[in-house]
Amino acid sequence: MYVLMLSGTVYARTTVAFGYLTNRSGNPNFNYMEVIFPNSFASSIEAVYDCTVIKPLKLNELLEKKQLTLQRHYENHELPQITKAIGCDLFIFGYFIPLPDNTIKIVLTLYESGSNQIFTFTNIGKMETEIFKIIDRITLVVFDFFGKNGFFMSKPIMRGSSVGLITNLNPEELNSMYAEFFNAGYSVSAVQGNELDSYYAHESEIMNYFQYISTDANSYDIITDWSKFTMTLGRWEGKKKKEWQEDLRKIYEIYDLHYKVFKNTVLERYKNIYPGCDYLLFVVYNPSRTSCWARAIDIKTKQLIFMHSNVVASGMNIDLQKTTRQLITIIQTPTALPQKSKKK
Amino acid sequence: MKKICIVTMIVYISFLSCATKKGVVARKIAITPGSRIVVIANHTNNIKNVIIARFMNKNYSVKAFNASDLYTIEDVYDVKDFKKVAYMQPLKNDNMVSFEKAVENIYKLHIYNYELSKAEALTDMRTKYGVQYLILMELKDWQKVSWARAIDLTNMEVVWVENYPAQYRDTLETVVDHFIASMSK
């Protein structure tokens, strides 16, 4: 998902296409914003990053040449096809709903064609009379994600809060990590660490599955298309094969289609079992403990609120403790817009 | 020149070994004598007896959780590591990308649930045995780092952690005494 970030060092310019930001309020008075929003995001990105931007109207023209039309909404599995048709690296689209309490909900989806990764975030904020303030708010999330190693923060995790940590560290290392959180003023819920040995320390592959976290409001995920999953069928197939097929369908339904529902049910139980725990933090370190990636879920809202794909401490002799201190600094520091003067 | 190189190497190696044997201690509250505790240590019964005796001598009320049997946790493979028994690789098939995601989600849900199951067992420890604190401990030889940790079972919070690089003159008793002194401060 870091095509834009890499574009500074790679010569091929990244192409970013913008679809509509659909008005889902049912009030046609807001329709004018459907194109203004994506055009503004596109201009902001173009001003900072060295990339080619395709705005919605131009995108529609390109699609019409291929007997296609720019839709107001796309299902995830339709995205690979649309990006292939226009030859773009990134496709950004979404929707907005003005809410009754003078706020606006904006949901933006960023899809990268090469990796098939999709990042969706929701931003609910004041319905500013000056539209550029809303643009800045959303642009900040997009910039963070592209410019800071897949960074996303919907709110900082402040000292005084209680975190449950799930890591790939062994018990001795886990103690060191806990000590850093204690020293920084956090409480640590014994989500992991209530056993003698750490299962996760021996299963790095499974820990990496948590890089992708999908929640109702914010998600970082991979698109799968089960319609492409075909099995050779015929009269020669016996009863057992059909049963197997049916089991497969059920697995898909439970663990892909309805996964979020199941996960939310489990997270709801966390509130009772770990009553003081505010955030569940997944932190996976590299083998030398000089860097890590992290994801955080707010237990109360069950939403993904933080992610960073490459936390690295500065200076010499970087170790587990320094990397952890760097992570703590990042999770408690509110993000800000970068300078627009220089192109990256 | 050769001598300087050798000396530098020795200094570097000793520096590295020091770095790996770093002591760490942090605590939220003191676990004072009189507290009702469970001590879980992955050692043979004679060593467990020594550990428990040190706590008893300091007037802790030690519940017989990890000491009510003749075998150790080490011997019970499917309790210590039951996730491996439950489902390892067979479901995974690299040719099916879509299916892979569902399989990954199974593992993720399993981990979410696994942490809940452990915590529920600890809650039982509190409600059925009246335990206040769970003390986890692993003692190592003097070249290595012994570690211990305490969890407050009323709110499931980690309240004390220590990594202790055992000294050459340390014995089993002195290391346990060191941990008891540290957590009760």
Give short descriptive properties of this protein:
heterodimer, A: 344 residues, alpha/beta, 6-stranded mixed sheet, 35% helix, B: 185 residues, 19% strand
Note down, in words, how this protein is organized:
The complex is a heterodimer of chains A (344) and B (185). Chain A is of the alpha/beta class. Chain A has helices spanning 3-6, 33-48, 56-64, 79-86, 131-147, 171-183, 204-208, 239-257, 259-273, 320-332; strands at 14-23, 51-54, 90-99, 103-112, 117-126, 152-153, 162-167, 187-189, 213-214, 219-222, 279-285, 291-298, 303-312. In chain A, the strands form 2 sheets. A 7-stranded mixed β-sheet of chain A has the order 2-1-3-4-5-10-9, with helices on both faces. A 6-stranded mixed β-sheet of chain A has the order 6-13-12-11-7-8. Chain B is of the alpha/beta class and 185 residues long. In chain B, strands 1-6-5-4-2-3 form a 6-stranded mixed β-sheet, with helices on one face. In chain B, strand 2, helix 2 (45-57) and strand 3 (61-62) form a beta-alpha-beta unit. The relative contact order of chain B is 0.18. Residues 5-19 and 77-95 of chain B have low confidence and may be disordered. The chains are: A alpha/beta (344), B alpha/beta (185). At the A-B interface, strand 7, helix 6, strand 8, helix 8 and helix 9 of A face strand 1, helix 5, strand 4, strand 5 and strand 6 of B.
Which structural class is indicated by helix and strand composition of chain B?
Answer: alpha/beta
Strand content of chain A: 25-35%
Mean pLDDT of chain A: 86
Largest sheet of chain A: 7 strands, mixed
Task: Count interface residues per chain for the largest interface.
Answer: A-B, 53 and 52 residues
Structural class from helices and strands of chain A?
Answer: alpha/beta
Radius of gyration of chain A: 22 Å
Q: How much helix is in the residues of chain B?
A: 40-55%
- Write down the oligomeric state: heterodimer
Number of strands of chain B: 6
Radius of gyration of chain B: 21 Å
Low-confidence stretches of chain A: 5-10, 340-344
Tell how many strands the DSSP assignment of chain A holds: 13
Secondary-structure element order of chain B, as H and E? HEEHEHHHEEEH
Low-confidence stretches of chain B: 5-19, 77-95
Mean pLDDT of chain B: 80
Task: Enumerate the strands of the largest sheet of chain A in spatial order, edge to edge or round the barrel.
Answer: 2-1-3-4-5-10-9
Count every helix of chain B, treating DSSP H or I runs of 4 or more residues as helices.
6
User: What best-fitting shape of chain B do the alpha-carbon axes yield?
Assistant: globular
